[in-house]
Amino acid sequence: MKIRKTILSDAELNIFIYENKKDEYFVVAVPTLEWSTKFTYDDFGEELLNQIIHSLSSKLDEQEAITLGHRINQWTREM
Fold first, then answer.
1. How far apart are CA 18 and CA 46, in angstroms?
2. Cβ(17)–Cβ(79) under 8 Å?
3. Band of the pLDDT at 5, cuts 50, 70, 90?
4. Are 67 and 52 in contact (CB under 8 A)?
5. Angstrom distance (rounded) from CA 56 to CA 69
6. What is the C-alpha to C-alpha distance for residues 76 and 79, in angstroms, rounded to an integer?
7. Does the structure show a pLDDT above 90 at 9?
8. Is the Cβ–Cβ distance between 48 and 37 less than 8 Å?
9. In what order do the strands lie in the sheet with 11-20?
10. How far apart are CA 32 and CA 40, in angstroms?
């Protein structure tokens, strides 16, 4: 499991990213926001990014959701 730190709205958030290589999926959680999601290796692309942003929009304002969504997308693609 990887833990990434990011700053949003002047607050530091811990982003927990778990990768299961055998079953080819990720679980991403942001405990501070009480938010998490799971997706497979096959889910990458614009559609996944939009799903993450849409899901985060219920916890954050639109611009913050877009910013964090792009960061999560980038971090999981690097793994």
1. 21
2. yes
3. very high
4. no
5. 7
6. 5
7. no
8. no
9. 2-8, 11-20, 25-30, 35-40
10. 24
HEC assignment per residue over 8-71: ECCEEEEEEEEEECCCCEEEEEEHHHCEEEEEEHHHCCHHHHHHHHHHHCCCCCHHHHHHHHHH
Taking the alpha carbons of 20, 26, 29, 34 in that order, is the dihedral positive or negative? Answer: negative
The band of 79, judged by pLDDT with boundaries at 50, 70 and 90, is: confident
Among 75, 79, 77, 78, smallest CA distance to 15 is for 75
Q: What is the CB neighbour count within 10 angstroms for residue 56?
A: 22
| Side chain identity at residue 2, one-letter code | K
> pLDDT digit string (tens) for 17-75?
999 999 999 999 999 999 999 999 999 889 999 999 999 999 999 999 999 999 999 99
